[in-house]
Specification:
single chain, Rossmann fold, about 55% helix, 3 domains, three-stranded antiparallel β-sheet, alpha/beta, about 450 residues, six-stranded parallel β-sheet
Length: about 450
């Protein structure tokens, strides 16, 4: 049966690969990122040692995930918070629906959160008649345009300032010549009223801190703080892999995330939230509910090789470094998590059968591994995904047969020496269209290795 997900990916990626205007915009924005990251890295006297330390701390957290999550629940509960465990997206949405019904909620303000995109929270809330407003500027732009986020960190990376001005003009009636600063003020004014009106605020979490029963948020706009503090109820939706062992690890992870995510030494707003408003406090929500989401993460955890992908801190550096992502963009993947990390984890989260093709959307250049702040061996995991898909019977008979013939031929010098270069070129480039459709034609040399070797010996 034809894989509709793979077909959609090929259609979209082929279209984007030749879209020069799209390439111009994404390269401009990634170019700005590349210009500032080296400056951010200067804060580390030994960056490689810092990266190794971060990987070791995430290894500790993932290897003892059950213990740390239970510790988090115990500590947060002591301070009046509540923890709900969601096995999948449906259960997480049901929890949210029940909370909304109990609070008679009509509107929600939501800060930037990839995990809420993963469970399609906005669509669900709309289906039950609740307004959900994205308060991050990039997410606000994408929601207004009816699009999913394009990038893990910068959701509207593919839009120019002219695109945003045109969108605001069409949707909000603003002057089409407004500057980015003026457009930001328009969004800010519209969103301020939403914070006051909303009964519930929703955030994700950059890190789960088990020893204090808290979550850590890092941001540049302050919308997460407002979403968490203005409404009476604060809901946190976070993947179980976001654990770090201790609050003392934030001194390592916050600067690392800021540098590799945006090129900053540290982001503008960094918050630790460890429960609802206490008796002696004047600010904050009356209730704090944390939904710990599995949604396939324990499948990754069970795989001794692939669990390394759970170390990811969602900085987006691998996307910015990937030559494939820079040519086809985030929307071609048709997944919540795009780029190299998305290609690694999506087949495990959403099924190898439907998404094995993403593991082949890579040049295997290793640049993603090179830039990962926690040193995840991304290109190695992409190869392992390919291996798992073949061992799981996901490759076709034609593909298996072709590779079998190729292996037997490659391992036999007599077979490799058969035929002339034109015949070999025709066989490879005309018969094996699965190879040549997506790659430059192969050109065999006119002389075989044995012929060249013998000529060299004579000389």
């Amino acid at each position: 049966m034809e894989n509709i997900f793979a077909k959609s990916f090929l259609t979209k990626s082929n279209a984007k690969a030749v879209d020069l205007e799209h390439r111009k915009k994404i390269n401009f924005n990634i170019g700005k990122y590349n210009a500032v990251v080296p400056k951010g890295k200067e804060q580390f006297t030994d960056l490689e040692r810092v990266r190794e330390m971060a990987k070791n701390r995430k290894w500790e957290a993932v290897e003892h995930l059950d213990t740390y999550l239970l510790q988090f629940e115990e500590q947060l509960t002591k301070r009046g918070g509540q923890v709900l465990w969601a096995e999948d997206a449906e259960q997480a949405l049901n929890f949210i629906g029940e909370i909304c019904a109990e609070k008679k909620c009509r509107s929600i303000v939501k800060s930037k959160s990839m995990v809420t995109e993963e469970i399609h929270l906005n669509n669900y809330l709309e289906s039950i008649g609740i307004e959900s407003v994205e308060t991050d500027l990039g997410e606000y732009i994408q929601q207004m345009d009816g699009e999913a986020p394009y990038h893990i960190v910068t959701p509207a990376m593919h839009k120019s300032k002219e695109d945003v001005a045109k969108l605001f003009n069409e949707k909000l009636g603003t002057d089409i010549n407004l500057t980015p600063e003026e457009l930001t003020l328009v969004a800010r004014k519209n969103l301020r009223d939403k914070y006051v009106q909303a009964e519930i605020g929703v955030t994700g979490a950059n890190f789960i801190i088990p020893d204090i029963g808290g979550i850590a948020l890092t941001e540049n706009e302050g919308n997460a703080r407002l979403s968490a503090s203005w409404p009476k109820t604060h809901i946190v939706i976070v993947g179980i892999e976001k654990v770090i062992p201790s609050i003392t690890d934030l001194g390592l992870f916050w600067p690392l995330l800021a540098t590799f995510g945006t090129g900053q030494q540290v982001t503008v707003y960094n918050s630790i939230i460890s429960g609802p408003r206490q008796a002696d406090e004047t600010d904050g929500p009356e209730e704090m509910i944390v939904i710990l989401l599995d949604n396939g993460r324990t499948d990754l955890l069970a795989n001794a090789k692939s669990r390394e992908a759970l170390y990811c801190i969602r900085c987006g550096a691998c996307l910015n470094a990937c030559p494939v992502y820079k040519n086809i963009g985030g929307h071609s993947y048709d997944t919540t998590y795009s780029g190299p990390i998305g290609s690694v984890i999506t087949p495990h989260l959403r099924g190898m059968h439907d998404y094995k093709h993403l593991s082949y959307a890579s040049s295997l250049c290793g640049n993603c591994t090179e830039v990962c702040p926690v040193r995840i061996n991304l290109h190695d995991l992409l190869l392992d995904n390919r291996k798992q898909s073949v061992e799981g019977g996901e490759s076709s008979f034609t593909e298996n047969f072709a590779w079998k013939i190729w292996k037997q031929t490659s391992m036999s010098r007599n077979l490799m020496n058969q035929g002339t270069a034109p015949i070999k070129n025709w066989v490879i480039n005309k018969m094996f269209k699965g190879w040549s459709n997506q790659r430059a034609p192969l050109e065999f040399p006119n002389k075989t290795f044995n012929q060249l070797y013998k000529e060299g010996r004579r000389n």
